[in-house]
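writing this on my phone so excuse typos. first protein, seq and then structure
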Amino acid sequence: MSACRRMFYLVKHRSLLTYVRRNLTTWSPVGAAFNARPHRKLDLLQKNVGLFGVPELSCPAGFQVATETALKNTERLVEKACSSSPGVQTVQCFDQLSDELCKVADLADFIKVAHPDPAFREAAEKTCIEIGTVVEKLNTNVELCKSLKNLLDNPDIEAQLDPDTRRVADLFMFDFEISGIHLDDALRKEAVALHVKLLDLNNEFLVGSHMPNRIARSAIPEHLHLNFATEGSFIQIGGLHADSPNDLVREIAYRIYLYPNAELMGCLEELLKCRYKLATLVGYESFGHRALKGTMAKTPETVMSFLQLLTDKLSDRTAKDFKMMRDMKKKLSPRHSELMPWDHPYLSGVLRAERYNIEPSLYSPYLSLGSCMEGLNNLFSQLYGVSLMSEQPRAGEVWSEDVRKLAVVHETEGLLGYIYCDFFHRQDKPHQDCHFTIRGGRQCQETGQYQLPVVVLMLSLPHPTKGAPTLLTPGMMENLFHEMGHAMHSMLGRTRYQHVTGTRCATDFAEVPSILMEYFATDYRVISQFARHYETGQPLPESMVARLCESKKVCGAADTQLQIFYAVLDQIYHSEPQNRSTTEILKDMQQKFYGLPYAPNTAWQLRFSHLIGYGAKYYSYLMSRAVASMVWKQCFIEDPLNREMGERYRREMLAHGGAKEPMLMVEGMLQRRPTIGDFVDALVSELNPNFETFIMDSEG
């Protein structure tokens, strides 16, 4: 970006300074933009620029046009890759080919779940299917694979490749190999058929895992009917009601919602068999071995060692946590004092509330959405020299009028990319917090320009009211910081290849930047810069932040052990066939890695939707948290606003996306190579009192 254009950004956005709430609180431009109710000027002469500024996407039919254009360009690039001499240009051509498809497919993948107009959602869904089919064909295109193999099999040419190009070439080759490209025609066809079958099974299981269960109204005591949705003569149960103070309501919900569905059970069993068969067909010991290639853990054996060691180190604390819960249950329900799985979430919450007064409504007035965005802006400015600048979207650029657009601008590098903030609840919008890559960053050889990354952050926050801006609970605020960690990973990466841009990296590394942001979100030195009452301007008391941090350690070992159980279950399901049902495996693993009794005639695994997107990788959250904890304690706990450390973090971890081995990035940041024991110790030490030494010195 030119110096003139950067200056225009600064002048344009400084002029937005706004006073809200009777001038008692003054917000920065980005804070004011998020605390104000959205207002769009109606300009009938303004041209519809299309979703995300893509001209074709001004109407649903435009998806077909965008798809056809992408497929034409794909054909041209395939021909170019197959006819060119092997060299760096081969990998560049592959990346451009990937970019052509991803720019349309990733955008469509988001629109199919987020757009309020069914016509747009349907058109986007068709695009996803069409491009997905093309990708499958490309992954089994022998001539295309040969052009890459000619490069990697030539020692002289391979030696000339820089590390990033070599890694990207290897990643493209891995995509070919897991599709069975190296097999003979008959086996390759079998691999393709298995892959197609798995797409259907994945979708069937994902849909089924979220479907509610029904039971006759007469089967449930009448005085409890009000706790559940009714449908004629049936009670419909679509969740676990884990926060209900009534232990009978929790038990009923648990037993009914988790009641085995024979059809879905068959789907899961078949899905796991097909995954194993496909993995072994293309040369791996198991699906787990295939899934973990290129990750920090590398093998299922390492994952299981990590989970077993963590279990051993937590065992005494976990036993104490369960004893506290049992004692609390005896106190609350003397006649039903056995601790069951449906009690864990509720009782751990009761124990936290009893020990620390952390009622969310006490915190929310200090955590307006605008103040939190201002806090993020301040944090990024101090760590990276980056500002978040609110921009007015053009006509047709966004899918809902309450979507905000942020330009991410570096003080010397200029515009880095765009973040679209789809933060507010609306009908038919998925109730989940997530980050979507719409367009990846890459160096465009054809233009000499850098293709700027574009992402969407999706939350489900309440709308502002006439009397107050959107007020966040501490949990909502942490989720906002978490998702913004993903966004900044996308923005601050400056990879040459979009195939490894931002969050396109190993799953067990991808959550490190987002989890690290949670530590900033609970450090008073960071919070004190933005958390102030939306009416009075008073700062959030330090003692309240201290209570919040300490409360998280209550039953922390039991909470972690539950995640270990899920991760172990995922590993066992994706190992060699067990010759026993998924329910028998669950009962066994629940006894060994959790401890609370299995409830007969339940099948929790049928609600384990993470088996689809995180198959054999559910452990990733625990390992990422261990790395984030180590980075925080070693690099940021002394001074969370240290610019030098922020620049080092960007240079060593954020800048590379997936272009560097994940453990090498961790090693670069920590200046040493951590062991599995180090990861375990990092997680265990978080449960110690006074872990946040700076915060814990405060009163209360």
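second protein below, same order as before
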Amino acid sequence: MERPSTAGNPKQSHDEELYIQQAVVFIEDAIQYRSINHRVDAGSLRLYRWYYSRICQWGLGLNIALVLLLAFVERPSSLSVSSDPRYRSDPWQPPCGLTEGIELLCLLIFALDFAVKSYLIGWEELRKSKWLIGYTVVISVSFIDWVLSVSMVCDEKLRVRRLLRPFFLLQNSSLMKKTLKCIKRTLPEIASVILLLALHLCLFTMIGMLLFAKTEDPKKNGEWELHFRSLTNSFTSLLVLLTTANNPDVMIPAYSVNRAYSIFFIAFSVIGTYCLMNLLTAIIYNQFKGFLLQHFSFSFQPESVSDSMKSSFSLTCGARLPQAARQFADVGSMDREQFRTIFDELDKDRIKEHPPLPQYSSPVLQRLQVIFAHYYLSVLGNAVALANVMCICTVLVLNSEKSTEERDNYSLEIMNLCFILYYLFEMCVKIFALGWKGYLSYRNNIFDGILTVLLLILQITILITYRLPFPHWDDPSSRSAVSLWEMIRLVNLLIVFRFLRIIPDIKVCLSGPILHQHSATRHVAEDPANVISNSSMENITSNFSVECGTYEQLNYWPNNFDDFAAAIILLYDVMIVNNWQAFMDAYSRYTTEWSKIYFVSWWLVSSVMWVNLFVALILENFIYKWDRSCSCSVTDVEKIRYETSVQLMFR
């Protein structure tokens, strides 16, 4: 069929060309997964196609790469053969204005890019786009900081625009945006597990400080002196053990004294490293898998299911099926969504029914029963347990440098007695409100009750043995074979275990993405290499005696924050977590203990989150292709390769 002639009507011909051009642009938007909310007049469409042309996008990508690579040349420059301060020659430093001029050109291109995007999508769409609003803020702040830098003749101490440069890559990459969106979906579950990890670390830190307290025998103080001397030292040692970087070094001093101490370290590693850390990987993979499957279902499945796709379902399961399924018994069939809903209901855990509450005739007893059966009583119990643990922690910190004979065990014993009396009161009133059967129908009550009875038995034993309170309780003649400290330590260990009652109540809800950026510049922390470089390196290496396994003894001098390239390598070494405690220890000694927060934060973001996200991507891509390829032809496999490319997966 021939196309009708429009030679006599130029306006109609012009309109047809515009419609064809609009259709082409919309098809390109669909293929590239771009929004269609933009101007569609002839001039705007030409500008739009030019902006998204390969040459223009490659130029924008080159501009982003250039502004990111400036960090290697800017002061302090990374243009030296070695990063080791012992052998490093003075690097070439660019003159003031060279890198600033290149950066100004890049910022102008970003400003032009923002202007074109704003014009194409219009004011209304611009107001809705958080990324473009952030783009405006970042460009404006970068310009202001650039002006301040030039006015100070490049002698400023802090360059804020350096911290903002990664945003240019994020804003112009749909892949990065999808990654952040995936992380946002995963954050609540990750936060819950990280909270459990923190609780695990804190509890084992307190248990370690109780087990490895300073004694009168110097031969038995090796573990205390090296790893459990203070609260921060204990926490750091166990945090590093969580990554297995200091295993078995951290265990050897205690293991040499008594082989039973190995149970403490093995239990910590099994729970933390092999359970909770792998649980993090499973959560990230599960969330990431759901993220991909959702996008696959939107891409490859129709939105609605026709009547011909309805499946017959025989409802012969009787009482096993929920009430929601029985409404389809007369119909005899259900569509796909109804079928999926039924099995979601079947997959839910069965709700455990508890025995009825005891009945009291007295109005006073009924009122007390309502009060003691309320959920707030459990909340108060958790608060008291937390206060008890905090008191024990405070006493341990205050007495960390004292031997067991020098500690004020009497005050600690009286404090524990008060808390144990409350635990006994809580158990009794719960039995009163719920009854014996109702009380034992809750697992957390069984856990609390057993530990409360054990604590009460220990407390009575202490009172009988030492006749507390007694003015001469510390008289050597009144001591038994087991010292008061040993018995109190056992009580404290049980109290710490009792604090685990709060785990079922841990619920964390977070909203909004978190973008954690680290600045690997000299102002973050003063380098050990910089501190020591004020002296002669030859004198240090020849006359300086250092402890085995430290930053100095391992000759980790090239790993520093002297320049951007060296900082990247140092953070990579920390991400690998092999001997990362040497870096953390060195920077905490030469700067402040707060520098440990920087390294722990980087470990959480890089090793815990990003590496697991990368593993989840590989696993999901591999499993999806494997499952599909096992049941498909060669042609279908080639189609799958196209569908599951990295870019399309994120789209």
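DSSP finds 26 helices and two strands in the chain. thats all i got for now
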